[in-house]
Amino acid sequence: MASPRRNQPAPTQQPRKQRAATADPADDEWLTVPEIIKNLKLKRRTWQHWRSTGKTPPLHRLPSGRYRVHRDDYQAWLDGLRVDA
């Protein structure tokens, strides 16, 4: 007969919801590229084209190879795109 604890997380592990609630507030300062693409309702290829032509906000590359954009840089970039009609 299988142990009733077999499918339960180890006692030292917190459930995902609790880990997210205790996440570092500094994480809110960084945006991922997929978050930006979703926010701007862009296609990934459009973002890639902008990146190749230098039209994206400053990107920071992590050791994992993924990119992040600081929220302040993103906001400044958006403000720079504003056009008074």
How would you characterize this protein structure?
The chain has 85 residues and is an alpha+beta fold. The protein has a domain at 25-81: Multidrug-efflux Transporter Regulator, Chain: A, Domain 2 (Orthogonal Bundle). It has 4 helices and 3 strands; from the N terminus they run αβααββα. It has helices at 16-21, 33-40, 44-52, 71-81; strands at 30-32, 60-61, 67-70. A 3-stranded antiparallel β-sheet has the order 1-3-2. A hairpin with a 5-residue loop joins strand 2 and strand 3. The radius of gyration is 19 Å and the shape is elongated.
Main attributes of the structure:
single chain, 85 residues, alpha+beta, Multidrug-efflux Transporter Regulator, Chain: A, Domain 2, three-stranded antiparallel sheet, 4 helices, 3 strands, 40% helix, 11% strand, elongated
- Residues in helix, %: 40-55%
Tell me the quaternary state.
Answer: single chain
Topology order in helix (H) and strand (E) letters: HEHHEEH
CATH class of the domain at 25-81: Mainly Alpha
The CATH architecture of the domain at 25-81 can be given as Orthogonal Bundle
Beta strand count: 3
Strand order of the largest sheet: 1-3-2
Radius of gyration, Cα only, in angstroms?
A: 19 Å
The helix tally amounts to: 4
Q: Structural class of the secondary elements?
A: alpha+beta
Low-confidence spans: none
Overall form: elongated
The CATH topology assignment of the domain at 25-81 is Multidrug-efflux Transporter Regulator, Chain: A, Domain 2
Q: Kindly state the mean pLDDT as a whole number?
A: 83
Largest sheet: 3 strands, antiparallel
- Beta content comes to 5-15%
Distance between the termini: 73 Å
